[in-house]
Structure formats: structure tokens, C-alpha cells
């Protein structure tokens, strides 16, 4: 009888110890996952902020273009007009449209890269 009681006590103690250890393991696991999830949230928020900054920078660069290049760039790249629609609205020829769009893209790219390069050296 004494052995049965001792065996039962040992089994209960062992079960409690196993459950307690499982609980601690689960808590540590959840804490690690929470930390990892939080880091990912922060990194996603940081990336969104960077994207907003980039969009604002490009908007500022576009605002510095000559009016016709601004209009053509916005219509083509932002509003999604076709070349034919842009030519009808602006009265440009196909060749003039291509040149203005090309110049606008080039100016935006060059200005953006110069600003990024300057920010990296700071």
C-alpha cells in the first residue's frame, strides 16, 4: 500500500512537473513569437514610411518639371491614359509625346538618384 501511495504521489509530482515545464516552454515560445511578430510589424511600418517618403519625393520632383512634361507624365504614368488619348488632349504629335515623356522620366530618375546619393553620404 505504501508503495502504491508513493508511486501515485511520484506520478502526480511528475505530471505536475511535466505540465509546469510545458507551460514555461509555451510561454517562452509565445514570447519569442511575439517578439518576432513585433519586429516584423515595426519593419513593415518602417517600409511603409519609407515608401510614403519616396512617393512624396517623386511628387516634388515631378512638380519641378516643365508644365507639359508634368501633364504628360501624370497622364501616362499615374492616370493610365493611352498615348492616343494624351495626344488628343494635349495636341502633341506622337514624336513630341515620346520625347517629352522620355525627358520627364530621365529628369525624375536623375534627380531622384542624386538626392538618394546625397542622403547616403550624410
UniProtKB/TrEMBL annotation:
<protein>
    <submittedName>
        <fullName>RNA polymerase sigma factor</fullName>
    </submittedName>
</protein>
<dbReference type="InterPro" id="IPR036388">
    <property type="entry name" value="WH-like_DNA-bd_sf"/>
</dbReference>
<keyword id="KW-0805">Transcription regulation</keyword>
<dbReference type="InterPro" id="IPR013324">
    <property type="entry name" value="RNA_pol_sigma_r3/r4-like"/>
</dbReference>
<dbReference type="InterPro" id="IPR013249">
    <property type="entry name" value="RNA_pol_sigma70_r4_t2"/>
</dbReference>
<keyword id="KW-0804">Transcription</keyword>
<dbReference type="InterPro" id="IPR014284">
    <property type="entry name" value="RNA_pol_sigma-70_dom"/>
</dbReference>
<dbReference type="InterPro" id="IPR039425">
    <property type="entry name" value="RNA_pol_sigma-70-like"/>
</dbReference>
<dbReference type="GO" id="GO:0016987">
    <property type="term" value="F:sigma factor activity"/>
</dbReference>
<keyword id="KW-0238">DNA-binding</keyword>
<dbReference type="GO" id="GO:0003677">
    <property type="term" value="F:DNA binding"/>
</dbReference>
<dbReference type="Pfam" id="PF08281">
    <property type="entry name" value="Sigma70_r4_2"/>
</dbReference>
<dbReference type="GO" id="GO:0006352">
    <property type="term" value="P:DNA-templated transcription initiation"/>
</dbReference>
<feature type="domain" description="RNA polymerase sigma factor 70 region 4 type 2">
    <location>
        <begin position="58"/>
        <end position="108"/>
    </location>
</feature>
<keyword id="KW-0731">Sigma factor</keyword>
Amino acid at each position: 500500500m505504501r508503495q502504491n501511495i508513493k508511486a501515485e504521489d511520484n506520478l502526480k509530482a511528475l505530471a505536475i512537473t511535466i505540465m509546469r515545464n510545458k507551460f514555461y516552454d509555451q510561454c517562452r515560445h509565445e514570447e519569442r513569437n511575439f517578439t518576432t511578430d513585433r519586429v516584423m510589424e515595426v519593419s513593415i511600418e518602417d517600409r511603409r514610411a519609407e515608401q510614403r517618403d519616396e512617393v512624396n519625393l517623386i511628387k516634388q520632383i515631378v512638380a519641378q518639371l516643365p508644365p507639359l512634361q508634368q501633364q504628360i507624365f501624370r497622364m501616362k504614368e499615374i492616370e493610365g491614359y493611352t498615348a492616343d488619348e494624351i495626344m488628343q488632349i494635349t495636341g502633341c504629335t506622337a514624336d513630341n509625346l515620346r520625347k517629352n515623356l522620355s525627358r520627364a522620366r530621365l529628369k525624375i530618375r536623375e534627380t531622384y538618384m542624386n538626392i538618394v546619393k546625397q542622403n547616403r553620404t550624410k
